[in-house]
Amino acid sequence: MNDLKRLSGYMGPYRRDMALGMLLVVIETSFELVIPVLMSDIIDQGVARGDVGCILRIGVEMSLCALLALVTGLLYARYAARASYGFGARIRGAEYAKVQQYAFGNLDHFETSSLITRMTTDVTVLQNAINGGFRPLVRGPSMLVLGIVLSFMMSPRLAVVFFVCGPVLGAVLFFVVRRIAPMYTRLQQSMDHLNNVVQECLTAIRAVKAFVRGEYEEEKFRQVNTELMDTSLSTFRTAVLNLPAFQLTMYAAMVLILWFGGNMILHGSLTVGRLTSFLSYVLQVMNSLMMISNVFLLMTRSLASARRVAQVLDEPVELTSPKHPVTDIPDGGVRFEHVSFKYHPDAAEYALADIDLDIAPGQTVGILGGTGSAKSTLVQLIPRLYDATEGRVLVGGRDVRDYDLTALRNAVGIVLQKNVLFSGTVRDNLLWGDPGADDDALWDACRAACADEFVQRMPGGLDADLGQGGVNVSGGQKQRLCIARTLLKKPRVLIFDDSVSAVDTATEAKIRKALGALEGVTKIIIAQRVTSVMATDKIVVLEDGRIHAVGTHQQLLAGDPIYQEIYHSQMKGGSPDAGTADHR
Questions:
Q1: Are residues 149 and 38 in the same domain?
Q2: Same-domain pairing of 248 and 373
Q3: CATH number of the domain that 304 lies in?
Q4: Same-domain pairing of 367 and 510
């Protein structure tokens, strides 16, 4: 319940709609409860005495009550829809905004498919709980209280039946809710598994087709789909138990009332009209109890969803700006002072251990190392995508934790190892680097990244559509567009995380030449090819998360065995990686 109370704060301006809806439900219920009283008067006064005028007059009153109940019900539906869908939109917006604040460490706590489910399915459950459950939540207790009061006014002896049926229905509801609560959590987790398989398959659909693994993927989907089906069947098989139990109790109550009421009529202590009206109240009271039980089931499911949504909203953001942040980064100098890092506090080993490295402003540094040597981890500490576990990372002579996050990341341009483009045009993607850039600036960045040659050939040039995730361009073309986008930021520190691996060596040489012309920019190049870093001011060789050696190409080639091995293995037979040219 605490999670639901926590989320109710996002109702915001829609609280007014909720209050109006509640008032309309009470009014609607009152009109409906007057109808059995009027029906009793028709039977006892109109039908029994043959008074047609009385029948018509009371009939008009009943019709008016029914009409007013209909109007208030329709108005409630309008306000409830506004409240539920407005609430859902605000929750989704809050979740999405919170995810944008997440650091990489926060994102490691959630699978992408789970975040999608929490923003869609779980929010829909909460919306349905309001839209479908708010009316019976208000109407049920109102009808229950008013119905029992009016029943006692008609016949206290017959109203005792409610005190017999109530505990039976309460016991059934308690059993169902207690059993079904954990099932709803498992149901949402099964939805996560299904979304994960679908997302993974659609993202890698080209690889699936290339390796002819369609049947394998179908089998994976069949398993998670079956899991979801079985979980749903088990959950809702339990959920529907309340319906037959309530119906059995309701019909048993009606039989008892007819039996005792009939005897009372025979003894003259009850009229036929009163018994008819009393039966109407029995049906309404039982229906109200049924509504309340359904609300409990909706609440039970919404509690599971509310808990999952609250986990996203309450996740403490690992990286934030300090209270009094520094917004000016004086230069692109980078220094690592005995930096160690591990992804999880409980991890047995550090991913980076005792890194001590100084990069002067404007210097170009290459980083080499085998797979898993933590090259990417090292450079991700510079823009505070992660924070160092021990030691300090300094940019411009200050600890990165002193800077405003936005200012720091604007000053550090990083081309990630995994190239990401977004749906839209070439222009839309490039403007991520500088939203105010004009066409001349965009073309200059494309020329520096050697992207102009293929952008010019595309229909529409800068306005060419890249498709979803940039599917209309090759891997090398993606890399060059990502480089151009980063250059538009005009950063003080420029990081290339193995970001020219998919382009041919001739194009890479052109890109290196363009980068060399950038003045006052510190450049850090992570590469697999020795040729990518040979001309840098110094080269850092990483091994198992530690700095193995630092020096120029000539120094390392003369005295470092790891660098010598990398160099000779790649240069053997002439031009290294001759087959990596970018072909589409």
A1: yes
A2: no
A3: 1.20.1560.10
A4: yes
Alpha-carbon distance 524 to 360, whole Å? 11
The CATH code of the domain that includes 357 is 3.40.50.300
Same domain, 241 and 198: yes
Nearest to residue 384, comparing CAs of 375, 395, 373? 395
Find the helix or strand (DSSP H, E) in which 383 lies: none
Residue 333 and residue 359 in contact, taking contact as beta carbons nearer than 8 Å: yes
Backbone angles phi, psi at 63, to 5 degrees: -65, -40
3-class secondary structure, 272: helix
Question: Which residues of the chain fall below pLDDT 70?
Answer: 1, 147, 162, 166, 502, 572-584
Residues recorded for the chain: 584
Indicate the helix (H) or strand (E) that contains 581: none
Closest CA to 430 of 416, 411, 451: 451
Separation of alpha carbons 108 and 103, rounded Å: 9
CB 30 within 8 Å of CB 42: no
Question: What distance separates the 2 farthest-apart alpha carbons in the chain?
Answer: 120
Distance CA 335, CA 394 (A): 5
Please tell me the predicted confidence (pLDDT) of residue 572.
67
Question: Which among 314, 343, 362 is the end of a domain?
Answer: 314
pLDDT of residue 298: 74
Task: Check residue 367 and give its pLDDT.
Answer: 92
pTM for the predicted model, two decimal places = 0.70
| Host domain of residue 199 | 2-314
Domain count, the chain: 2
Q: What is the pLDDT of residues 188-218, one digit of tens each?
A: 788 888 888 887 887 777 778 777 788 888 8
Whole-angstrom Cα distance, residue 451 to residue 445? 8
Is residue 129 located within the same domain as residue 194? Answer: yes
Query: Is the Cβ–Cβ distance between 342 and 105 less than 8 Å?
Result: no
Residues 237 and 175 both lie in one domain:
yes
229-to-176, 181, 236 alpha-carbon distances in Å: 20, 18, 11
Burial of 67 (0-12, 13-18, 19+ CB in 10 A): exposed
Q: What is the pLDDT of residue 277?
A: 72
Last residue of a domain, one of 314, 342, 369: 314
